[in-house]
Request: fold
Amino acid sequence: MSVRANQLFAALVGLYALQSLLLCLRWGYGQDAFAFWTGLLAPVLPIVAYFAYLSLVDRLKPAMLWPLGIIVLNWAVLLLSPDLADPVILLTYLGFGFAILRHAYGGADELALVRIGQTDGALRAMVLTGVALVCSGFMDVFVIVDFIRTGGQHVGLSVTLAQSVFLLCIGLAAIAGRSGATDDDTAQVTPNPPELTEEDGTIIARLTHLFEVDRLHTDTELNLRRLSRKLGLPDRSVSRAINRTQHLSVSQFVNGFRIRDATRMLESSDQTILQISLAAGFMTKSNFNREFARVTGQTPSKWRQSKGM
Reply:
């Protein structure tokens, strides 16, 4: 994950905490003076969430900053026509929630700036956040209807419950993003790949050279974008070549070379399993253990024992 992405995710968490505080003061303690500031902050959250996940797909460029205009539009409506503010905020949450889900639909291999081995967790976090934004938008519909029918009698309790659910989703997203529970074992691979091309074979040969000769797979910061730049090719060309020729995700393909190195080290050295996992390019021992079992059918310790080490 890039520094920019980390900053955006930190900003998202901070803004959410601020929103929770403002909502608590408004609905929990009846401080209506905070309603205006809540309205100003509301459209910022989905935009920051969108930027945070977009930064995992590609480097943010000036042309990609157009959503900032949506924030300005929301603020203008809030100042000039307050009665229309809620519907506009609703559309903002729904629009960017679905936008995040659309990016997630592309699969783990679309997250070119996420480290190899963490893309599946990041993908699950994207889905959770997108769903949370969409549900938050629908919650706004309930609030509007409740004001029309009962004058807002149920808004306080409803907002509290919604905030709790949203907090749960953000927490689950954070856990999913850190754990990468299956290390991309479930990453999408084309079920019926089209006919292979000569370029596919060339790409795989060049990748194999990068791993076997340059040992690029041992770089713990490796991601799809770095691989693509080494080859001078688009991200999608590299991921599709791997999917079509190897029937593996990018992560599984790279981790195959890492496990190959690890098996050699387990047989020929007395290094600890943690030392070997780091030397092979894995960031954590748990990731290493899961991938080792996926590739070899054994745990690293059992493999070493079977070789008489």
